[in-house]
Amino acid sequence: MTAAPVLLAVDGDGLLHRAFHGIGDSSELDAAGRPVGALRGLVTFVAAAAARLRPDAVLVGFDSRVDPLRKALFPGYKGHRPPRSPELDDQLDAAPELLGAAGIAVARVPGYEGDDVLASAARLAGAAGWQCVVLTSDRDLFALLDDSTSVLRLMGDGIEGAQLLDSAALRTGYGVGPDQYRDYAALRGDTSDNLPGVRGIGSKTAARLLQAFGSADAACAAIDAGRGDEVAAVIGQRCADRLADSDSRQTLARNRELMSLHRDLALPGLESMRLPLDPAVLRSALRSRSITLGPSLWALVGAEPPPWTPNGFASAPKVLPGSQPPAWAERVVPSWEELRAADVARSREAAQRAAAVAASAAAGAIRAVSTQARSGGRAQIVLEGQLSLF
User: Fold this and answer.
1) DSSP 3-state of 278
2) Count: domains in the chain
3) Where do runs of H (alpha helix) occur along the chain?
4) What percent of the chain has pLDDT over 70?
5) What is the pTM of this model?
6) Which domain range does residue 374 map to?
C-alpha cells in the first residue's frame, strides 16, 4: 500500500521568534545592513524538519500583521506582551516575502493568526487523504491531533530533539484527548495569551474534570441539574462552587471562543506547496539576504541525503564515519566473573562504612550523655557522631 503524501505545516512566527531569541545573532546583518539572524534560523529550522520528515509539500503560516479578530473580542488578548524589538519586527515583515521568493509556499490571512493557517492546512491535507505534520512550539495546536495530523513540537533541543506527538501521546502526557484540549486550556487559562482560567482550576484539576465528565459543558450541566456533589467529588467543593459562579462561566466561554482554531481559511492548493524546490531559485533568494546554506538544504531541493544523515537529519554528527570510532566501540565489556567480583567488593565496602558509622554514632552518644550530665540535664540536639550520616 502506498504511503499517503505528507504536508509539513510550519508555525512561521513561532519559529522565527525562537530563532531570534535563541539561535539568531542579533548583530548579523545582510549586505544592506538589515538584521538577518532570525531569518537564517527560520530557514534552518524548515530545512532540518524537511530532512527529518521527508515531506512531499511545505507551507509556512504567519500571523496577520493587523490586529487579530480575537483582539476585538477581548482587548486584553496578548496585551501583556512587551513591544517587539525593531530588529525582530523587520524580520517578521520580511519572512513571507523571502520564503515566497525562495519557492516555499506561505500564507498570511488578514485578521487571523498563524495557528488558524495551520489548522486550515491540516484540514485541507486530511480532506485530500494526506498526512499533516505541524511544526510548532505552541501547545494550542494539540487540538488538531487526529488520525491524519500529528505535531512535531520544537523545544530546547532543536529539530532532532523535537517530539512527534499523536493523540495517544497527548492522552499520556496531559490526560485528555485532542477533542478535549480546548476545554482543558480554557479551564486552566493561558498566561502566554493573557487569558486567566477559572480560579483555582489548574492543569491537573482540569484533566480530572474532563476525564470524569467528558467536557466542560457536561460538568456545568451536572451542576445546573443539582448534581454538584458529583462534580465536587472529582475536583473538590471549592472548585465546584467556583465553576458554578457566573463570572467563571463567562471566563470559560470567553476562553473557549478565543482558543477555537479557524479551520476554513482559503489557502493555496496542495499542489502549489509541493517539493522539491528549484535549487537555483532557493539559493538566489537566500543570497539576496546574505544567507548562504549549503548541504543542509538537500531535503528541500530533492537532492540525495549526505552519507552522514542515516536518520534524515540536516546536520552532521560530531564524529563523521571513518574519522574515529565512537567511545562505546572502544569500551571492553567485562566478563560475568569480573562483574560478580566487583559486586562483592562493593558490598564489603558498604558494610564496612555502615559499621564505622554505627561505631561513631555510639561513641557520640556516650559523649552526649556525659555532656548532658555536665550541662545540668540539657540534651544536645545533634550527636557528634551523627554528622557523618548527613
Assistant:
1) coil
2) 3
3) 12-18, 37-53, 69-73, 86-102, 114-127, 158-161, 167-174, 178-188, 203-213, 216-224, 228-235, 237-244, 246-259, 279-287, 298-301, 327-330, 336-374
4) 79
5) 0.79
6) 336-389
